[in-house]
Amino acid sequence: MNAPAKIAASPITAGQRLNEGLREMWYPVAPSWMLQQAPLGLTRLSQRIVLWRDADGGVKAIDDRCPHRGARLSMGWNLGDRVACWYHGVEVNGEGRIEDIPALAKCVMKGRQLNRAFPAVERAGAIFVWFGEGEPAPLELPEEISGGEWADILCTAHWKCNWRYAVDNVMDPMHGAYLHAQSHSMAEGDKTATMRARDTESGFVFEKTNQTGVNFDWTEVGVTGALWLRLSIPYGKSAGPGGSFGIVGMVVPVDETSCRVFFWRCRKVQGWSRNAWKFLYRARLESLHWDVLEQDRLILEGMDDKAREQEALYAHDGGIVRLRRMLDQLAAAEVASASEPACEHERA
C-alpha cells in the first residue's frame, strides 16, 4: 500500500493573521501584581505561555507545555531560574531548555531546547511579551506611562470579543456622546461633529473640528514597538490636581473571540499632588470609570463576530477605516515576511 500523501499546510492570509493578532509587536499580557511567586499560565494570541519570576524578580516566559508529556508547566513550581513540571518533575529554564529530569540520572533530553522562549519586560505596572520572530523591536511607550511628570493607574479586564472590536471602539470618539452620555465626564458637548485625521510620527490623530477640550473629542493611535491608543477627557478641579485626564489603551488578543484590555488612567502631577490625585481617584472616580468600561464591554460583546462584514459606515468612522488600513498593511507585511524563507528554498 502506498503511503498517504502529505498535505501541505495552507499559508495563512493577512486577514487570518490580523484576526488572530499581529505577531511582530510587544503586548501587555498581565498586570505586574498578577505575577507573584507561583508560575502564571496565560493564553495570549491563542498561545499558552507560562510566566514566572526569577530570584531577582525578573520575568521569564516560555511555552506553557512540558516537553516530556505536554502537561502545563504553570501547574508546577517556580525554582528561580527554571520551572518544574508537576506531572514528573521535569525542569525547564527561561530559555526553554531542559535543565533536569529528576527521575532519570542520565537522559539524552537534558540540555535540549524544546520550548519557545519569549522576550519579556516589565513596564508601567504591566508585563510585556514579544511574540515576533528574531530580535524584538524597541518598546517605546507614550509619555503618560513612561514615568517622569505623569502618574498613572492601570486597570485591565477580559472582554469576550475579537481584539479588533476593542481597538475600533477607542478609535471612535463620537460614541462617547451617545453610549457614555450619562457619564460624569462625557455628558457635555455637541452630539454632532465634523471629523478629520492628522498624521503623527508614529500614527495619526482622529479628532472633532467643531469642539475640543469638552468631551471625548480626539483619539490617537501609534505603533512604537507596541500598538497603543490614547485620548484625553477634560476634568474639573473637583476631580483632583492635574490637567486633563489622559487614557492610554492597549489590547492583547486572547484568541479570535476574546481579548484583554489595558487602560492606564493618567494625570500630569508630581510630588504630594500625585498622592492626592491617586487617593481621590480611588475614593471617588474609579467605580464611575468601571461603569464606562462596562458600557463598552456590553456593546462589543453583544455584537456578532462577523459584524464588520455587514457594516454601513459613514463619515464619523473615518478613523476606524484608516486604522484598519494601517493594520491590514502590517498584517500583509508579516505574512509576506513569514513566507520568504520558503520561497528562497524553492528557488534553490
Shape: globular
Order of helices and strands: HEEEEEEEEEEEHEEEEEEHH
At the third CATH level, what is the topology name of the largest domain?
Answer: Naphthalene 1,2-dioxygenase Alpha Subunit, Chain A, domain 1
Distance, first to last CA: 32 Å
Question: Biggest sheet: strands side by side, in what order?
Answer: 11-17-16-15-14-13-12
What number is the mean pLDDT? 90
The assembly state of the depicted protein chains is single chain
Name the helicity range: 10-25%
Please tally the helical runs, counting DSSP H or I stretches of 4 or more residues: 4
CATH class of the largest domain: Alpha Beta
Strand content: 25-35%
Rg over CA atoms: 23 Å
Query: Unreliable runs, pLDDT <50, ≥5 residues?
Result: 342-348
- Structural class comes to alpha+beta
| Domain tally | 2
Summarize the structure.
The protein has 348 residues and is of the alpha+beta class. Helix content is 22%, strand content 28%.
Describe what you observe in this structure.
The protein has about 350 residues and is an alpha+beta fold. The protein folds into two domains: about 20-130, Rieske Iron-sulfur Protein (3-layer Sandwich); about 145-330, Naphthalene 1,2-dioxygenase Alpha Subunit, Chain A, domain 1. The chain has helices at about 15-20, 165-170, 270-300, 320-345, and strands spanning about 25-30, 40-45, 45-55, 60-65, 75-80, 80-85, 90-95, 100, 120-125, 125-130, 150-160, 195-200, 205-210, 220-225, 225-235, 245-255, 260-270. The strands form four sheets. Strands 11-17-16-15-14-13-12 form a seven-stranded antiparallel beta sheet, with helices on one face. The longest helix has about 30 residues, at about 270-300. GO terms for molecular function: 2 iron, 2 sulfur cluster binding; dioxygenase activity; metal ion binding. This is 3-phenylpropionate dioxygenase. Pfam families: Rieske, VanA_C. InterPro entries: Cholesterol_7-desaturase, Rieske_2Fe-2S, Rieske_2Fe-2S_sf, VanA_C_cat.
